[in-house]
Amino acid sequence: MTTVLLAGCGSIGLALGTALQAAGFNVIGLRRSAARAPFLMLQADFTQPLDPALFTQPVHYVVHTATPAERSDAGYERAYPGSLKHLLNALRGHPLKRFFFVSSTAVYAQNAGEWVDEASVTAPVNFNGTRMLEAEQLLLHSGVPATCVRFGGIYGQGRNFLLRRVQNGAEVQSDPPSYTNRIHQDDCVGLLQFLIEKNEAGIALESIYLGVDDDPASEETVCTWLAEQLHAPAPVRRAAAAGAAQNKRCCNARIRQLGYRFRYPDFRSGYTAVLANQ
Questions:
Q1: Where does 3-156+182-215+242-263 sit in CATH, by number?
Q2: What is the mean pLDDT of residues 193-213?
């Protein structure tokens, strides 16, 4: 049976493991703290060197979905390049078919509203993007078959920061617009499972995929629509100076061409589902 190791089992890892197990995979979770799951869960801090004896079964796939314990350069170094080194060392000799690393659109520095894709220049200026890109490069040069998935802003049940911001009267940049990129957490799970199943079927995968929905709408558009749904105050529109940062617009053509179909292709469909469960 094909075994998938989920390194970091938060909400996405637990949901992915449950879905993969239902699809016939043998699933093992790995996380720093204890947690209940419908599959085998190992407890270890993989920001530190791991004992290879921890893994008593042959591992075929790894999905790294860890998050840093602190938002600092040191925290990101431990959580991403550091933990990847420890996992790769501990799994040396395992029959790895592919290692998936959940990365971020923070690896891009473009901020003038440009469209970016997997071939666009990556030159992050902040520590989070820098450490993510360092981890990507470490993995892609490790000799292990690997794919990095750059997710945009993840939202869904339990991720309510934007809803609270809108309810409190959001201030938004309107002129020039500031673009946003996002993906519903259910599509994070669906996309990762889709890639594993494609690889199992012998379909060649790329080394990089952007994981974002179809609609990199402006901050003003998103917040105005949410305010209407929440019966909250309309956002306060703030005009910015000419040449102000506009973020970037991420293109998901590559994952769509592979055949993935988003459950929530835009913020309206995704947040409609979120609000229905509030």
A1: 3.40.50.720
A2: 98
